[in-house]
Design a protein that fits this description.
By secondary structure, this protein is mainly α. Helix content is 82%, strand content 0%. It has a domain of 44 residues. It is built from two helices and no strands. It starts with a helix and ends in an 11-residue tail after the last helix.
Length: 94
């Protein structure tokens, strides 16, 4: 494992942790908000809709950024491998 791989692994872990922590915080605030509203259904629907929107937006943004980052990294590594001289092994005959 190269140093770059370790850095990418740490970024992925801590990025996912940040998204999960923020999603849990949003869910916690929504639950407390619904609990404190004492049955006003219109406001409860608004709070839950806002919480769902925030959680789905945060998760989608993280996954989208991660996918683009992985794609860019694989393209960059593919080009550097293409520039490096490679040896082609002769086919084996039985």
């Amino acid at each position: 494992m190269k140093q770059d791989d370790g850095l990418e692994l740490a970024r992925a872990r801590y990025g996912l942790f940040a998204v999960l922590a923020s999603n849990l915080a949003i869910a916690g605030v929504a639950v407390v908000g619904v609990w404190r509203l004492d049955g006003d259904k219109a406001v409860i629907v608004g709070v839950l809709t806002a919480a769902f929107t925030a959680v789905s937006s945060m998760t989608t943004a993280y996954l989208g950024i991660k996918a683009v980052s992985n794609t860019a990294r694989s393209i960059a590594l593919g080009e550097s491998r293409r520039d490096a001289p490679t040896e082609i092994a002769a086919p084996r005959t039985p």
